Amino acid sequence: xxxxxxxxxxxxHDHHGPAxxxxxxxxATNHKDIGTMYLVFSGLMFFTGGFMALIIRxxxxxxxxxxxxxxFFNQMTTMHALIMVFGAVMPAFVGLxxxxxxxxxxxxxxxxxxxxxxxxWILPVAFSMLLATLFxxxxxxxxxxxxxxxxxxxxxxxxxxLIFSVHLMGLSSIMGAINVIVTIINMRTPDMTLLKMPMFxxxxxxxAYLLIAVMPVLAGAVTMLLTDQFFGTxxxxxxxGGDPVMFQHIFWFFGHPxxxxxxxxxxxxxxxxxxxxxxxxxxxxxxxxxxxSSIAFLSFIVWAHHMFTVGMPLTGQxxxxxxxxxxxxxxxVKVFNWTAxxxxxxxxxxxxxxxxxxxxxxxxIGGFSxxxxxxxxxxxxxxxxxxxVAHFHYVLVPGSIFAIMAAxxxxxxxxxxxxxxxxxxxxHFWLSTIFVNVTFFPMHxxxxxxxxxxxxxYSTQFTDFNSIASIGAIGFGLSQLLFVYVVIxxxxxxxxxxxxxxxxxxxxxxxxxxxxxxxxxxxDPPKVAAEVAFS
Amino acid sequence: MIRxxxxxxxxxxxxxxxxxxxxxxMPRGVTELSVQTYDLHMQVFYWCVAIGxxxxxxMIWSLIRHRKSxxxxxxxxxxxMAAEVIWTTIPIIILLxxxxxxxxxxxxxxxxxxxxxxxxxxxxxxxxxxxxQGEDVAFYSSLARTSADARxxxxxxxxxxxxxxxxxxxxxxxxxxxxxVRILLTSNDVLHAxxxxxxxxxxxxxxxxxxxxxxxAEQSGVYRGQCAELCGMDxxxxxxxxxxxxxxxxxxxxxxxxxxxxKVATAK
Lengths: 535, 268
Hints:
The structure holds two protein chains of two kinds.
Chain A: H1 3-10, H2 22-26, H3 31-59, H4 70-105, H5 113-132, H6 158-186, H7 199-230, H8 244-278, H9 285-298, H10 314-326, H11 328-342, H12 351-374, H13 376-382, H14 386-416, H15 422-449, H16 463-491
Chain B: H1 2-17, H2 32-65, H3 81-109, E1 117-124, E2 127-132, E3 137-141, H4 145-150, E4 173-176, E5 181-187, E6 192-196, E7 201-205, E8 211-215, E9 221-227, E10 239-245, H5 247-267
Parallel strand pairs in B: 1-5, 4-10
Antiparallel strand pairs in B: 1-2, 2-3, 5-8, 6-7, 6-9, 9-10
Helix pairs in contact in B: 2-3
């Protein structure tokens, strides 16, 4: 992924080549460098969080406690979620945005390059702090990534560090989002009207607004936790007149849009890739934009479906049920449009397409279980069980993460100037797809049969599916090492040289610049020719 | 470790043959509402299967037929108002068909009027406390000794040899068959949730607040569940066991509890 390093050497004639050594990265203002750093960071976090997942799955392989104590198990589930959500998925999409948005809209760089630098460099600090809590008295946070009080207030010395690191992650996201919005609104090449923008740019624009809307809400919620703990307030403590459930309302007002923050850019990626490999324009570009916008709007009025068991008035439950079911409509439109894009195309199945297809099928399965979860009376049975774990892993792993991998395979030749090893890429795809299902599909059964989530040990009737899931998880984890190998091989230029188009006549401005993309692209705004326009 | 692995592989084989252990689906349960919930769950599930058959069918058809290696020429179309209207309208109709029974069941689920008896359930880290309102009977219910011993790390006790491992308690909540039992839930420390799948009951226990739910068990028997809201270190070790007895058996049990309480009181 650090293609720009080598790219730079070949372009010494460039007036503003990159600085040498550490300075290049520490003082980075180039969107490609920063994008690379985001992606590398995300990869590190993916493996850190994945390692924790493997600790969880090892312990759950068979009943009884074999490896870890219950409290450490809870630390692992909590940290796994925080790291994957804030450290792996979100930064990966920001990395892709940094690399691709300027190149897709014909801009020379992001609008606010110095802030861009800052929003990246906050992340390693935040996550070092979060990971350091593992070694503090009382251990890492163990109250779940949702940080529900009063339990989270029982966290040991890690507590203020948890809050501060969440603040920093939020700060980074907000700055990243501001940058995306300002770039897209102000720096498009003059020809590119809003509705001519590629879907990846569109979905990121919507995502950025969601981030700006909800990250401060999260910051507010955790700040109230902080003052409850240290400054004698009682926002969430009943003894002082507060209400623990209020935290859940505030948290999920952030948390539900957050779900779409992690999936909308994935929609964008898939909407880029499927047309390329179907050799056919995206079906219903404009309705895709409207669907994504509707999803974003609806995401603000469904938060309480995460808390149907807290005891809400009937009318409240009915409202949140209906609103949640409504999300199926725009999401359905997107799935149908992708299908219509493939329909009567001329498809080939390179790795990015394979990952996008797996996304299409498996994300839809996650959508189905989402629809089931919307129905309150059944949700009361599903709530906080492994059915929920299965659901959100289906939308996050073969959903978001497969889309990220698809994006990496799709644009890697553009970044490095070389093709990745197609055969190994496909092996990686098949291993990932098989193991992801072996891991997460049995969890549906476990949840329906009555296994609660977040438990380190379970009754013996849950053994079989847990063992299967654990085997799948180990397989999935090991398969990802192949991904790293393929990427490194490509970055080290061990593949065939890539043309500027890389694929067969893909649409979009990013394919009009050479591969690897020069350190500076589009110093002069390009014309959007008919054959690259989307609408 | 190797021994454990062998054990669980053996467990896989044994369980594969013992059909009761291979639970794939939600239990139908033993209350009118649990059966309705199950039916609703299956109804929505079948809708999903039907939609999935159509959508995945179209995708797979396309994947098979519209590939370049078969010499397919890409079509040029990229819009169709008619198609978009159709696939916006049909999902809305399906959702309406789903929403109506869903709302009906929910209304029943929230109708806690006219209970026959009330038990106040309080969550503690990490056990439950049951107080029978107006009956002077109250007790804690903790993880059974056998499970508590076996669950320790390196306990040397194989969980497969423990009956109802992690789903057994020292004192069960006993209720009469056919009675509408109101459960008032609260907590002494952090959030807990009281979940018994067969009774289709799951409700959060919140410190400082009282939550209400109810069930009416139509069959006598023993029903097991667990705390469903993360409540700290031993969240996985605070099971719930509800024993449903015939009315007369229940009365005998209740009288027995009262005289035992009285004995303790006089001894003091």
